[in-house]
Specification:
Its cofactor is pyridoxal 5'-phosphate. Belongs to the pyridoxal phosphate-binding protein YggS/PROSC family. The structure is a single chain. With 227 residues, the protein is of the alpha/beta class. It has a single domain, classed as Alanine racemase (TIM Barrel), CATH 3.20.20.10. Helix content is 40%, strand content 19%. Strands 1, 2, 3, 4, 5, 6, 7, 8 and 9 form a nine-stranded parallel beta sheet that branches. Helix 5 links the parallel strand 4 and strand 5. Helix 1 crosses helix 2.
Length: 227
């Protein structure tokens, strides 16, 4: 298996899928590099990868020490006591889903006189085992976010249910797109440029339904080996 070749093929596939999207937007591909080595990341870079997603703070910190020039996103659950280690080092925090995390990011950002870009994570299917703001609570949470000057909401993120039910997946993705558009049309101060949805098993459907950022790991790096 060649990570470089996987990456090149996937980029071409995503470019073709953009033509089937309801928006026709360019889609950003986040290579999910959790549990993969820095050498594997560099091989993905050679195949065209420019942004990477990590789930765990310690692993992200270790990789940033070796690859400080790479663009990393925090895509996993973020504990408030770990914010201080990564808030000023990642390109995007995709998993903002509660007020105490919002407050901590804002506090740290203010102390550094920077603005941290974030996505609101939405629990689109109301799954108890997943993080994310409940669908019906997103607008209230967004209004809370707007009270903080050092956090900038750039869009929404979701992790769809782990299912092969295409109808259910499309419904989830359609609802996310409608929510993004509704916010964009009603909150002039929010850009809502990013809709991050779709992973290795469902990215094709997600792009068709309006995703402009997908997070893909196994189709690039192969199956993870836990450690």
């Amino acid at each position: 298996m060649s990570i470089k070749l996987n990456m090149e093929n996937l980029l071409r596939e995503v470019e073709d899928l953009e033509k089937k999207s309801i928006t026709g937007e360019k889609v950003r591909l986040i290579a999910v590099s959790k549990m993969h080595s820095t050498d594997e990341i560099l091989e993905a870079v050679s195949g065209g990868a420019v942004e990477f997603g990590e789930n765990k703070v310690q692993e992200l910190r270790d990789k940033l020490e070796v690859l400080p020039e790479q663009n990393f996103h925090m895509i996993g659950n973020l504990q408030t006591n770990k914010v201080k280690y990564i808030y000023d080092k990642v390109r995007l925090i995709q998993s903002l889903d509660r007020v105490n995390l919002l407050e901590e990011i804002d506090k740290r950002a203010k102390s550094s006189n920077i603005v941290v870009d974030c996505l609101i994570e939405v629990n689109i299917a109301g799954e108890e085992q997943k993080g994310g703001v409940a669908y019906n609570d997103v607008r209230n949470f967004l209004e809370k976010c707007l009270e903080y000057n050092n956090v900038k909401i750039q869009g929404l993120m979701t992790v769809a249910p782990d299912t092969e039910d295409e109808k259910l997946l499309r419904d989830c993705f359609k609802r996310m797109f409608k929510l993004k558009e509704k916010i964009k049309n009603n909150y002039s101060e929010v850009k809502m440029d990013i809709l991050s949805m779709g992973m290795s098993q469902d990215y094709k459907l997600a792009i068709e339904e309006g995703s402009n950022m997908v997070r893909i790991g196994s189709k690039i790096f192969g199956k993870r080996i836990g450690r």
